[in-house]
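Q: Convert this sequence to C-alpha cells.
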Amino acid sequence: MSTMDAATALDHCVAQTGEPFTWIQRKIFLAAWDGQTYAQMVTAWAEQGDRVYEESYIRDEGRKLCKCLAEQLGVAVRKSHFREAVSVGLRSRDNHNYDPLLLGADSIRPPTNQLSAGVCWVGRTELVTELRDRLQDSCRLLTLVGLTGIGKTALAGRLSQELDFSEQCVVILDSDAANFGLVARVLLGESAALAETQTSKLVNSVVARLQMQPCLLILDMVEALLVPDRDGQLQYREASFQQFFEQVLRATEMPSRLILTSQDKLPSVAQGRYNEYFYEQRLAGLTIAEALELFAQWEVIARGNQDRHILQRFIAAYEGHPLALRVIAGEIVSDYDRDIQAYWHEFGHEIEAVEQMRQATAEWPSDNQPRLDRYSIPLRDLVKKRVEQTFQRLYRAHPLACLLLCMGAAARRALEREGWLFLISEYPSEDQQAAFQALQRRFLLESEQSKHRRRYRLHSLIRSVASEHLLQLEETF
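A:
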C-alpha cells in the first residue's frame, strides 16, 4: 500500500471511507503524500500559475483533512507522517474490512471481550442481580444512564456475562456518522443491509431477525444519536431508531434483549406504554466500601487509619466516580510510589476545595455517601477538571507520553501496542516504550482482549480532553 502513488491513495481513501473531500483538501492530500510542507505547497502552486493562498488557510484545511482521515480510518493522522499513517489506516480496512465505529471486525462476539476485559469490577452485586433477573423475565429493553465514566459500559459487559445468549453483539455509537444502517449491518450482514433501500423495511428486517434468533444486542453511547427538537427536548436524529425500539416493545414475541447505555435520558418509547418490557436504570457512584476495594485492586493500599481516611475523602469528594478515582490512583501509583500521604501533601488542597464547595452548594449531598447521577452538573464539571489536571501533570512529567495520549485520541477503535508506538515512530524506540508504559502506569489506557490479541483504547472522556489539546501540543514538538 505504501508504494502506491498519491492519486491512487486518494482514490482508495474516497472509496473506502465514502468521504468526497473538498477540492482544496484533495490538493493538500496529494502534496502531503509527497511530503511537502504547507509553505512548500503554497509556493509550488503559485509557481504553477495557481492562485496565491494564505499559508494559514492551507494549514487549517490540512488539519481538517487529517482529522477527517483519522476519524474514518481509525488511526491518528499527522502532517509529519501523513503517507505512513494513511497507508496503515487503509491496510487495516483492507485486511479486516474494519468499520472504525466498531470495536471488532465481525459483529463483535462476545461483548465481554470488548466491554469488560481489563475492567476492575467491584460491588454492585445486588444491582447486577436485579437487572439480570429483569432481563431474564419480561424486560426487553434496558437503558443504563449516567455521567460519563460512571461505569455504564462496564455494567453492560458484566450483565452480558450473567445472561445465557449464544449470540451477543455490541455496536459502539460514538460518532456523528453512526446510523441505523450500522446496527443493521451487524445483525443482517453487509450485503443484506445494503440491499434494502427503504428504512421502514430495514427496521422490520432487523426486528424479525431478533425474533427468529435470540440475541443480546448492546448499543453503547446512544447519546451520540440524540439531537434537541424545537422545544429543546432530546429526540433521535433518525426516526428509524424510535421505530426500532417501539417495534421491539410491541412485538408479540421477542426472545432477544437490548441494553442501551447513554449519558442522557433517552426519549420515551411508545408513549410510555409497555412498561413491563422497558426499564431505565440510573447508575450512581460507588459506595465508600466498594471504592476502597477498587483502590486495593489498583494496588493503592491504605497502610493505616490516616491513609484510609485520606482515600475516603477522595472517594467522598468525587462521589465514588470510578473514572475520577482511577486517574487519582494512577498518579499515586506512578508518581508517588503508592505513598498516599505524600500525594495528599501535594494535592490535598484540591479535595479541601471540593469539600468547601459541597458545604456551600445545595446541589451536593449533605452526607458522605456517594449519590452520583447524570444530572449533578457540579460533579460532571469536577470530573472533567480532574482529567484536565491529570493531563497537565502528565505533560510536565512526560511530554512524549502526553503527545502519545493526544494522538491516540484520534483513533476511534482500539489499537495494538505496535499501533500506539507507530504514532510516535519518529522518536527513538526507548522513548516510545517509555511513553507507552507511562500511560499504562497511570491507568490512562483501557485494554481489551479478542482473538488472542490485546488492544488499547482511551475512555471517551479522556479522549475528549486529549483531543482538545492535540493541535496545541503538536506545535511544541
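DSSP finds 21 helices and ten strands in the chain.
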